[in-house]
Amino acid sequence: MSGDESGVDGSLVATARERLRTGAAPAVVCGELAARTPRWSDAALAVGLARGIPEAELRERLAGGRQWQDEFHPGEEEEYGELLEMHGVFDVPKQLDEREEVIAGHLRAAWAAMGGMGGGYAVGLSRRFVRGELSSAFRTLARFGPRRGRGRPAEFWTAMVAAGELLDPADGDERGTVAQALDESRRRLAESAR
Question: Could you name the domain of life of the organism this protein comes from (predicted)?
């Protein structure tokens, strides 16, 4: 095995880099590489390294799902890659600027005051934070709101208003804009103060 400094086969990383450069999806590349090596985690590491994700961070992401490789068998390499993709293993972290760090801090405070969130939604929200999709995270949190009987509404809506006031009000999707979610957050904050 001709490894680079990471201990991952350098040819796997080079192949991953080339396939990604040509536009192949990370999940597909991972599946292709997993078919070439008995240690499928090496395929995942190669794809992540090729995307510029630090090895320590990749290993941490993979540590949470060590059982994943055991759940798959030869011929299911593509499914393995897709599962890792769904869990955000190949998400490239966005470097947040100072303003974005403040926004993210408010959003994390809101999330902590929420009182819980279903696992699938939590994974999706976590991925938005990693990718720096703060407006999307804001709109998602505003749609969910604090959990009845478990959340801390005043704390949640205070953090949401603070975050929303720093975001681009026009940013949005088919479910609404930041401005709409901010208006709702302000209304709900006023209600929670009563």
Answer: Bacteria
